[in-house]
Design goal:
Distance between the termini: 198 Å
CATH topology of the largest domain: Jelly Rolls
Bound molecules: 2-acetamido-2-deoxy-beta-D-glucopyranose
Number of helices: 3
Structural class: mainly beta
Oligomer: single chain
Shape: flat
């Protein structure tokens, strides 16, 4: 212990030594800094106004070497009058702070003398080791100097004059001068100790003091007013804070209950101290229960959990939390408990209270703020309860169906031992119950009973005294003359009723059966339909209940909204009714396709098998959705496409064939595969110009005389046309341009006649012209007609008898063919001769042309069919063989001229 104290003492001595070394040892009263004898430096005075001087002499003569105060300034005032500021500067690194200054004004008459100024305690400047003396003369320079020695450094400037106490001026910027000593000195003294003037002290507060409250303000003082004091709280605390500038102690947390000492220390510029202790005493304010004692009454038949009371306990300290609990119960029990933050006191469910066993419980309620606890008393008194009692139930009453709304039927009575207000309510055996009970106990009808079908009701009645619900007890109400509702006896059905579409109008579908115990009732049967469109195809007989098809609207399956129609039937006796329903299913029936007309027309043309006649514009309708149509025709001449109804020729059809009809009426049919409809189709076939007119021979030769009479028929060039009718009408034309006049003509029957006199022609001349036959549609054939005017005019006209034989039948043919060739060659020679003779080359040209246009004729095979004779008038030695070629592979016809 002793050793420890020694080391503590040694440590504090060391700390004090450190402080002393930094601020310097305490100045000894009477020591001085500066010139020992200022008047010895009475030599010169500066000449610059507003001059500041700083003495950083290397011999430290102007530097303070202790901590203390300047009590006197002594200087020599030379020549001038005015104010002098005696200053203390504190250099620290490159900063020079003006610590303090004392002013003195040299007045007229006091100049040129050594002046000693005493400074009052309050104005003494605190100096520390290292501080430097300075001078500032705002106007005229006052303090004298003497130039001497080799160093004696100082700095002079007019720029530092305005520096306030506490402010800084950088003396290092001022050039240092030397060899001058100023007549100034400062006498120092040790200072006075600081003190905390209002400690020790005690501050008393309650625990509800708000945070931030001012607890105490310290007062410190020092006789040396300019001594800088530092005050600190040396006790570490999280609940209090100390402001060293205002010296105020404030709370930073809820004040801790009890006594808290806080230590403070004040320190002056030279490290002198004083201490003091503030004692903070905090008293706790206990919580307050505002609403105890209190009494409550509880019925002994209490069964539900019950909140008995809510304790109102508060604490004036907002920082305290109050909790309450049941400290004790007398007699001891656990049926009471507290719940939630409101300190509610509860009675548990089913507490089994009995007035006769315990009629009062005393609860001690304790509330605490965790520092102080207060208690209160809560009394629970148990009260007896008697349930109400019915006095006239069970019961039964008879009523009639004629009762109207509000008729009184019965009055329930009951009693309660406590005389409590009693309340009645009830339930009923039936969902629709035309009765009600009032709090008076009266039971009344709430509707006209006529409309109800139930013979009796049980009313289950309860009475309630505000605590206990008693019941139910039954009140039976018998309606003695109840109307019974009709009953539908044959519905519902196991399956739907089927009705085919297109059923006859007004046929029965279903007969509804119903019965009613009230035999005198009259009944009305009505029906509604789902979908409602069912009402247009079915009707209900409101008297008999017979459902029929509509008497006016046919049932068309295809237009129904739904084929399944629900019929809701409703039988009413005026008061009560029965309802049921059945389903009618409309069956879809296959309906025949229908031709829109009984006769259709179609026009086409004759032609070969398979050629198209046309498609009739049938308008076939089939009511059945999705039905397909297949067409048929019963005429053998035609085929019909079963799908498209396009009509074609079944075989070649040629109206030129005798007996062919141009208009044929057929039966056509259409079938949906099951049902068939027929109509007539009138087909008109138009004739086609399918044949070309043809001459019977390729060429004709006629003989005549140049004096032949006009109108004489020389022969026939009749042609034929296989077409009958208009296309078979033919006409003949002759091309006589080469002759220069129309000498010949052809009759409509083919007769070739002389049309103009031939006298201009000479005997032996042969004429050649082209005949054309044309039918009404312009089809045509041509043949060459040669007219020979022989040399001899005496030759008798020879008329041959026509006879017919085959070419090969006649053995003479071989002979005459050879002879004919000889004759032909002779004719050719003759023609050439005559041409040369008469200079007419056209005949040769015509002949040559004719030969050249039919170059292949002789190469074609012979198909000999007939011989035809020609009248020959001349050239008995000459035989003519003529043949013509028809277009195509028609038979060859050879004409023979017999001699
Ligand atoms: C509790 O009591 C105080 C004082 O009587 C009252 O001001 C306050 O409203 C009460 N609080 C409740 C919750 O009743
Ligand atoms: C109700 O009517 C029944 C039969 O008519 C009868 O027996 C009964 O006594 C009647 N009840 C009352 C309370 O009138
Ligand atoms: C009758 O009244 C009691 C008490 O108010 C209630 O508990 C009960 O549900 C009521 N019963 C009917 C059927 O309204
Ligand atoms: C068309 O049908 C009718 C009626 O069946 C019949 O009398 C008539 O002969 C038929 N016509 C033909 C061309 O088959």
């Amino acid at each position: 212990m002793c050793k420890f104290k020694f080391w503590m003492l040694a440590f504090s001595t060391f700390v004090a030594l450190c402080i002393t070394l930094s601020k310097g040892a305490t100045c000894k009263d009477g020591d001085h800094i500066g010139e020992g004898d200022p008047k010895s430096k009475n030599k010169e005075v500066d000449t610059t106004n507003g001059l500041s001087i700083y003495f950083d002499r290397s011999d430290d003569k102007m530097k303070f070497d202790c901590c203390g105060f300047v009590k006197e300034w002594e200087f020599y005032a030379k020549s001038n009058v005015g104010t002098v500021h005696f200053q203390v500067w504190r250099p620290s690194g490159s900063t020079y702070t003006l610590v303090g200054e004392n002013q003195y004004t040299v007045t007229s008459g006091n100049e040129n003398a050594e002046i000693r100024i005493s400074i009052t305690t309050a104005e003494r400047i605190n100096v520390q080791n290292g501080d430097i003396i300075g001078i500032y003369q705002p106007v005229l320079p006052i303090v004298s100097y003497k130039n001497e020695g080799s160093n004696n450094q100082y700095r002079q400037t007019t720029a530092a004059g305005t520096t306030p106490v506490g402010g800084a001026f950088d003396w290092s910027t001022v050039t240092q001068s030397t060899k001058r000593k100023y007549a100034i000195r400062a006498d120092v003294t040790n200072g006075n100790n600081p003190s905390i003037t209002n400690l020790a002290a005690t501050a008393t507060f309650t625990d509800d003091t708000v945070i931030g409250t001012l607890i105490f303000t310290l007062a410190v003082s020092d006789a040396d007013s300019l001594d800088p004091l530092t005050t600190a709280m040396t006790t570490t605390s999280s609940q209090f804070t100390f402001d060293s500038s205002t010296l105020k102690v404030t709370s930073t947390a809820q004040l801790p209950a009890g006594t808290t000492p806080l230590n403070f220390q004040v320190t002056d510029g030279c490290g002198n101290t004083d201490t003091g202790t503030l004692t903070v005493v905090v008293t706790n304010i206990p919580p307050v229960i505002h609403n105890l004692p209190y009494n409550v009454n509880v019925k002994e038949d209490q069964t539900a959990e019950l909140e008995l009371y809510v304790i109102n306990a508060t604490d004036s300290s907002q920082y305290d939390t109050v909790t309450c609990s049941i400290q004790s119960v007398s007699p001891a029990t656990s049926i009471f408990f507290t719940k939630n933050s409101l300190y509610g006191i509860y009675l548990q469910a089913f507490p089994s209270l009995s007035y006769d066993t315990v009629n009062a419980y005393v609860l001690t309620i304790a509330c605490t703020d965790s520092k102080d606890t207060v208690t209160g008393t809560f009394n629970v008194y148990i009260t007896r309860n008697n349930a109400p009692v019915f006095t006239n139930l069970q019961a039964s009453v008879n009523v009639t169906a004629s009762y109207t709304t509000g008729t009184s039927i019965y009055t329930v009575t009951s009693s309660d031992a406590e005389g409590d207000q009693l309340y009645y309510n009830m339930t009923c055996s039936s969902v629709t119950c035309p009765f009600a009970i009032y709090h008076s106990g009266e039971v009344r009808s709430t509707d006209n009973l006529q409309g109800y079908t139930q013979a009796g009701y049980d009313l289950y009645i309860y009475v309630y005294d505000g605590k206990t619900l008693v019941g139910p007890k039954t009140l039976t109400i018998v309606v003695t003359d109840i109307n019974t509702a009709p009953t539908i006896t044959n519905l519902p059905l196991a399956s739907a009723v089927s009705v085919p579409e297109n059923s006859a109008l007004g046929v029965s579908v279903f007969q509804l059966s119903f019965s009613d115990l009230d035999t005198t009732d009259t009944h009305v049967v009505t029906a509604t339909y789902t979908p409602s469109s069912g009402g247009t195809i079915f009707t209900m007989d409101t008297t008999s209940g017979l459902i029929s098809t509509s008497s006016t609207t046919n049932i068309n399956y295809e237009v129904l909204a739904s084929p399944s129609i629900v019929v809701n039937v409703h039988v009413s006796d005026g008061f009560a009714s029965a309802t049921s329903s059945l389903t009618i299913t409309v069956l879809d029936i296959n309906e025949a396709p229908v031709f829109g007309k009984t006769l259709y027309h179609l026009t086409g043309s004759e032609g070969s098998a398979g050629s198209s006649v046309g498609t009739p514009a049938f308008d076939v309708a089939d009511p059945d959705t999705g039905a397909t149509q297949t067409y048929g025709i019963d005429c053998p001449e035609f085929n019909i496409n079963s799908n498209t109804a396009a009509v074609t020729l079944a075989a070649d059809y040629d109206l030129d064939v005798s007996g062919s009809l141009s208009v044929i009426t057929c039966n056509v049919s259409v079938t949906d595969g099951e049902l068939t409809a027929t109509s007539a189709l009138k087909i008109t076939l138009n004739d086609v110009n399918d044949n070309t007119p043809a001459f019977s021979q390729p060429s004709y030769t006629f003989y005549t005389q140049s004096n032949e009479a006009v109108g004489t028929v020389l022969g026939s060039i009749a042609a034929s046309d296989a077409d009958i009718g208009a296309f078979g009408t033919i006409s003949y034309t002759l091309d006589q341009v080469s002759l220069g006049n129309e000498y010949f003509g052809a009759q409509s029957n083919g007769d070739f006649f002389v049309k103009a006199g031939l006298t201009s022609f000479s005997n032996g001349q042969t004429l050649s012209i082209t005949a054309t036959v044309t039918d009404s549609a312009g089809l045509s054939d041509t043949a060459t007609v040669t007219i020979v005017i022989p040399l001899s005019t005496t030759a008798a006209t020879t008329t041959t008898t026509d006879r017919y034989m085959t070419f090969v039948d006649d053995p003479r043919n071989i002979a005459w063919v050879c002879a004919a060739i000889v004759v032909l060659v002779g004719i050719v020679i003759l023609m050439i001769y005559q041409s040369f003779r008469f200079g007419d080359f056209t005949r040769i040209g015509n002949w040559c042309q004719r030969v050249s246009t039919k170059p292949s004729e002789p190469k074609k095979p012979y198909r000999m069919s007939t011989y035809r004779t020609q009248k020959v008038r001349d050239i008995p030695e000459t035989r003519y063989n003529r043949h013509s070629v028809n277009s195509g592979w028609k038979p060859w016809r050879t004409g023979i001229v017999e001699l």
